[in-house]
């Protein structure tokens, strides 16, 4: 466990919602790397995530598991029995805090990438596309083999860059409540055949 992973574990215990400004800033700096950190903590806590698990669900699970991890590793770390391990330079990368525009779904990317983005970017920054009707936030989606051309909507969802379909399951139009894709289509059938606004 390296120092940043330890700090992130402690933050989840002490400030699970990140309300304090310093904590929020630190969490934002670590947010891009949190999937790597999350992977390590899941292994330490012996939690086996399923491919369809959303990041929010995994974080909530770890909020319950973090006190046990802290109890197991804090004492030995303070006594010097566990030493901090620097991250290898060859695997290190700098990042910036996520911004709202990072959540924009790019239909040129593969369907698998977009489906993972929808799960990973919840609750912040969320995933969305802009349509002629306004912004459409995507809360739940699945991958299907064949779909319409990239960036074009059909009855099932959105075409992606590799020819697959991002099957939209739950969406939220601007200023409205979340709803199923089918409910959205009943109110806005003209979106079928239209393209996203880039």
Q: Order of SSEs, N→C? A: HHHHHEEEEEH
CATH architecture of the largest domain: Roll
Query: Could you say which structural class the secondary elements and strand pairing correspond to?
Result: alpha+beta
CATH fold title of the largest domain: Methionyl-tRNA Fmet Formyltransferase, Chain A, domain 2
| Average pLDDT taken over every residue | 80
Spans of at least 5 consecutive residues with low confidence: 31-36
Characterize the structure shown.
It is a single chain. With 198 residues, the chain is an alpha+beta fold. Helix content is 37%, strand content 15%. Strands 1, 2, 3, 4 and 5 form a 5-stranded antiparallel sheet that branches. Helix 1 crosses helix 3, helix 1 (3-14) crosses helix 4 (55-78) and helix 3 packs across helix 4. The termini are far apart.
Labels describing this entry:
single chain, 198 residues, alpha+beta, Methionyl-tRNA Fmet Formyltransferase, Chain A, domain 2, 2 domains, 6 helices, 37% helix
Topology:
Blueprint: H1 3-14, H2 21-30, H3 34-44, H4 55-78, H5 111-120, E1 127-131, E2 134-144, E3 157-159, E4 165-173, E5 179-180, H6 181-187
Antiparallel strand pairs: 1-2, 2-4, 3-4, 4-5
Helix pairs in contact: 1-3, 1-4, 3-4
What would a concise description of this structure say?
With 198 residues, the protein is of the alpha+beta class. The protein has helices spanning 3-14, 21-30, 34-44, 55-78, 111-120, 181-187, and strands at 127-131, 134-144, 157-159, 165-173, 179-180.
């Amino acid at each position: 466990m390296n120092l940043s992973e330890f700090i992130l574990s402690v933050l989840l215990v002490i400030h699970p919602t990140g309300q304090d400004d310093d904590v929020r800033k630190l969490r934002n700096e670590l947010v891009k790397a949190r999937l790597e950190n999350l992977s390590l903590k899941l292994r330490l806590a012996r939690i086996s995530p399923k491919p369809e698990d959303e990041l929010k669900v995994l974080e909530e699970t770890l909020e319950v598991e973090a006190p046990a991890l802290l109890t197991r590793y804090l004492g030995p770390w303070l006594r010097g029995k566990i030493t901090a391990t620097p991250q290898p330079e060859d695997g290190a990368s700098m990042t910036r805090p996520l911004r709202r525009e990072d959540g924009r779904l790019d239909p040129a990317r593969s369907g698998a990438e977009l489906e993972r983005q929808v799960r990973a970017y919840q609750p912040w920054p969320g995933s969305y596309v802009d349509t002629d009707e306004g912004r459409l936030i995507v809360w739940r989606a699945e991958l299907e083999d064949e779909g319409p051309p990239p960036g074009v909507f059909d009855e099932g969802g959105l075409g992606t860059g590799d020819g697959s379909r991002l099957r939209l399951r739950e969406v939220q139009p601007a200023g409205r409540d979340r709803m199923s894709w089918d409910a959205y289509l009943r109110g806005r059938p003209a979106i079928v055949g239209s393209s996203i606004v880039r």
